[in-house]
Write a structure and sequence with these properties.
By secondary structure, this protein is mainly beta. It is built from three helices and 13 strands; from the N terminus they run E-H-E-H-E-H-E-E-E-E-E-E-E-E-E-E. The protein has one domain: Phosphoenolpyruvate Carboxykinase, domain 3 (Alpha-Beta Complex).
Length: 181
């Protein structure tokens, strides 16, 4: 994939309602092109309770990754439509509940926890991360083995970060990608 354009985004009122619970990271979020009109006008939204739970490994929430390739998968490009959009979002993770495996009840966080982190076997090394002036940590560098192994079975390939409150997210950048087939 290659980057075609990067757009800085500042949505009305998003800064005012942002819930800074600490541990802020700049993370990736991918979605189908058809979803972006709604995302840009209304922000990222969590599926309503009546929506089917299929595909939500950690319950209904907003899902992010520290690797662009993980989020780019959700653009669903094809050789005939190779354009995709991804977001770089500021996510206030607060204290994370770290999990090795899927948990459809991930949204039922214990007191003092603000997010879930699904631990993956490949991730950028946080030693290479850059901290911005406003305290946001930006994961950087090549993917490395994390040596994470789920003792009960399947290990996630990549880290996944999930928040269950839309106010913990600020969209910072919209990136237009071309996928190379």
């Amino acid at each position: 994939m290659e980057i075609e354009h990067i757009f800085k985004v500042e949505r009305d009122n998003e800064n005012q309602v942002f819930k800074d619970v600490g541990n802020k990271m700049l993370l990736w979020h991918g979605s189908r092109l058809t979803n972006f009109a709604g995302i840009m006008s209304q922000g990222l939204r969590i599926a309503p309770p009546e929506a089917p739970v299929t595909g939500y490994m950690f319950g209904k929430g907003l899902y992010f990754a520290d690797m662009s390739s993980k989020s780019a998968n959700y653009c669903y490009p094809t050789p005939s439509n190779n354009t995709g959009l991804v977001l770089l979002t500021e996510v206030a993770l607060g204290k994370c509940h770290e999990l090795f495996h899927a948990d459809n009840n991930g949204h039922r966080l214990s007191e003092g926890l603000s997010s879930v982190k699904g631990l993956g076997s490949i991730a950028p090394n946080l030693k290479n991360a850059v901290t911005l002036d406003d305290g946001v940590v930006v994961p950087m560098g090549p993917a490395e083995s994390t040596n994470v192994v789920n003792p009960k079975g399947y290990t996630l390939n990549y880290n996944e970060y999930i928040v269950y409150d839309t106010k913990q997210v600020r969209i910072r950048y919209l990136i237009k990608l071309n996928f190379l087939f």
